[in-house]
């Protein structure tokens, strides 16, 4: 599983700045989807070679007893409990404050590795900037500059070092059957859908999670096909049904998305699409996972409401249009079989092998139909394409002056490949490789 790094610190020490640097999209084109708004507190890590998740807790006041500060502290507590490592930021220009000491005291009790990070240290002697923070009793302070990037790579490498490269990751990518994560905000019907999927069918083996913190996986069979369900909420089996034993957790949701290869995003037809729905959808898009959307509780809403929710979806979740949407009732079991069929299709699309000659031909047809716009004196030239990865499929395009291709044209190319190869249910990524200037790619 990917390690989860949680940033804590008092307001204004630079947590958001560090968060942005740690999560800045490697592929700016993904970030450029119209209508996509992000939850600026949770992200997929992009610095260095290894993948990780980052959580930014808003200003953390461990002694707040009520009000908004108390609420924020509770959210921070949940994130601390679910963290694999804690990054405690302090401000090297301001120096140590009583608030830092309170937070340090809380973190000394956290049974997680804590890294003391002295930010805003650009242009300062790092040892001097760090020295007074030894008094916090959290080990050697590490001086960085989040805004300039100094020391950030080294910090990430150090923090990730103790975590083994995912042992089962390699095996999981070779998996021939879908690993499904059922995600959605609280009360939309995730457990009900899990039961509709698993209830009647054979659950091959289900071991109680016991003391392990890892998300559990439940293998099951349906219509002779094998699947694995990635748990997001600590499912417990009670008689014939599974129930969630933990409250909703964004971190667990993200970890499950990272661990699966097909996401089933559950929405509640009786409610309007919320920011939380959109943020979860944004994570799915960022992660590149295949996706099926189940609009649940269709039995409980009238025609007026049905029209309204469809309009709401197309307005707020347009960036998920690569996915199939199904209108289902998990409670009555209707539409569940179709969801699973789309899971199969999305999985197949995400894992497809795309032949180089066909990719190149598709590229040529697309360029003949609509050439990439000229940028200054250069017109991008696209010569050939080959596949660079799966789940999501990555198409690598070789040519010249490709670093200036606008996002709208990239989306046109994406659509062309998706149509030509009939890749329903998976996002597709395009990477450019320019012959003359190897540094201008990505
Ligand atoms: N000089 C310097 N300023 C920085 C650095 N990192 C962040 N800042 C500045 O510090 C201020 C606070 O940064 P934020 O990232 O918003 O801090 P925060 O901890 O997220 O603050 P809250 O959102 O209030 O919790 C901003 O003005 C940043 O530009 C740095 O490495 N060096
Ligand atoms: N009418 C109707 N109600 C449903 C349907 N699916 C679930 N519900 C109801 O919605 C409520 C929430 O369902 P759950 O399956 O517990 O939702 P959840 O997403 O797992 O909730 P959390 O565990 O809080 O994240 C329950 O009262 C269900 O009976 C459906 O298809 N139709």
TrEMBL record:
Give the InterPro entries listed for this entry.
Answer: AAA+_ATPase (IPR003593), G_ENGA (IPR031166), GTP-bd (IPR006073), GTPase_Der (IPR016484), KH_dom-like (IPR032859), KH_dom-like_a/b (IPR015946), P-loop_NTPase (IPR027417), Small_GTP-bd (IPR005225)
Q: Which family does the record assign?
A: Belongs to the TRAFAC class TrmE-Era-EngA-EngB-Septin-like GTPase superfamily. EngA (Der) GTPase family.
Name of the gene: der
Q: How does it assemble?
A: Associates with the 50S ribosomal subunit.
Q: What is the lineage of its organism?
A: Bacteria, Pseudomonadati, Pseudomonadota, Betaproteobacteria, Rhodocyclales
**The keyword Cell division appears for this protein:** no
Write out the residues that bind GTP 2. 184-191, 231-235, 296-299
Q: What single Pfam family name could you report for this chain, choosing any that match?
A: KH_dom-like
Annotated GO biological processes are: ribosome biogenesis
According to UniProt, the name of this protein is GTPase Der
Role of this protein:
GTPase that plays an essential role in the late steps of ribosome biogenesis.
Gene3D superfamilies reported for this sequence: 3.30.300.20, P-loop containing nucleotide triphosphate hydrolases
Q: Which residues form the EngA-type G domain?
A: 3-167, 178-351
The UniProt entry, under HAMAP family, shows: GTPase_Der
